[in-house]
Amino acid sequence: MLSPNSWLAIARAPPLQPTAPAGILCRPPPLPDPPDPTQFPPLPAPRSPSNLSKPSSLPPSQPLRPVHPTPTTTLLSAGTTPSSASLLLASFLHCPFPNCSPNPIPISSTTMNPPLNPQSLPPISPPQPSSLLGAGPSLSQSPLPHPFPFTDPSPPSAPPTWASKVRSNTDRTLCRLSPQTFSPSGVPRVIIPDEVYQKGAELHKDFLICRFFGRIPAYKLIQNVLNYLWGKGKHLEIHMLPTTNSALVRLSNDFIREKVLLKRFWYVETSMFHVSQWSESATTTTPSLQRIQLWAHLKGVPFDLIYNAGLSHIAGQIGEPKETDDWTLSLSSVSVAHVKVEVDTSIPLPQIVEVGRSDGSFVNVEVDYPWTPPICSHCKELGHISRNCPLLP
């Protein structure tokens, strides 16, 4: 007969009288009683300035007994007087693990803080009386050195504005340069030398004059378009001249100014205008559009004619040949060639040019014009549409 299994004793117990709660096979061992607080050594009383001169009530020859006698009590070196703090620390220095070294590090009372000697403490000075403005350091005591050098906490000065720069660099003084004279009718008259005009024209050489062919648009519309096209997002200086149907625009960038003058004709919405360099001899009337330069795209040009001489023969049948572009000369496309010609707008522009050889064979080259000047349906003039016609109310 097999011996009964002690682990299954709970399972065989009657349900009405269980020997242990469900789920526990063996009752855990009872916990040990906590240590008695009365067996701990008393802590040393705090020392105040009033009882520093009194000796300690605990004689150094009678050390406290540790709670748990361990070999650490023998670690104190002979011939030394242990303190209560060192004995309290030595009583708790025991090895909690069984595999630790049996020879602990010797601890002597010299490694601990020695007991305070009342004779070595500096005397405590009585508190200084405070004034109504609060206590502060005396004049005899030198102040502590500051870790960082003292800096002036004044706020930095604001950067100069453009108005202040212009105001400081502009000479605003005037003086009399010519005598006061009158005309025979009594009107003041002055004759200004030509060098004065030339110097003023040199100072204003970065101005362009824009002459509109139809009704001049609003200032806000001109400003938005020209700032985007010419100013690259920056604000340009624009002066409206409504009496001459034109506007003055300052372009300080020489490269952009040359590109704008090279194109000559520009648009603000549906209003076309002509751009020229400002000069004292510039006319106040809008230039004529009877002869203008425009680009023509030639389609179906023979491959052996796509170079300067061959394109000049074909462009001469449309108008006065001027130039071609790098896109055509680099043979980026062999089916289309670009040429610029000066045409007479009073004559209809050709749509086809017949190109022949010496043997009598001919090839038709189609001509396409990406842009032509608009024609007003009301006054039949070039340069504007009926919406911007100045003759309409």
From TrEMBL:
Residues 70-80, 130-143 have a biased composition (Low complexity). GO terms for molecular function: nucleic acid binding; zinc ion binding. Residues 11-80, 106-165 are annotated as: Disordered. The keyword Zinc applies. Residues 376-390 form the CCHC-type domain. Pfam families: DUF4283, zf-CCHC. The keyword ATP-binding does not apply. Keywords: Metal-binding, Zinc, Zinc-finger. Residues 27-47, 57-69, 115-129, 144-159 have a biased composition (Pro residues). This is CCHC-type domain-containing protein.
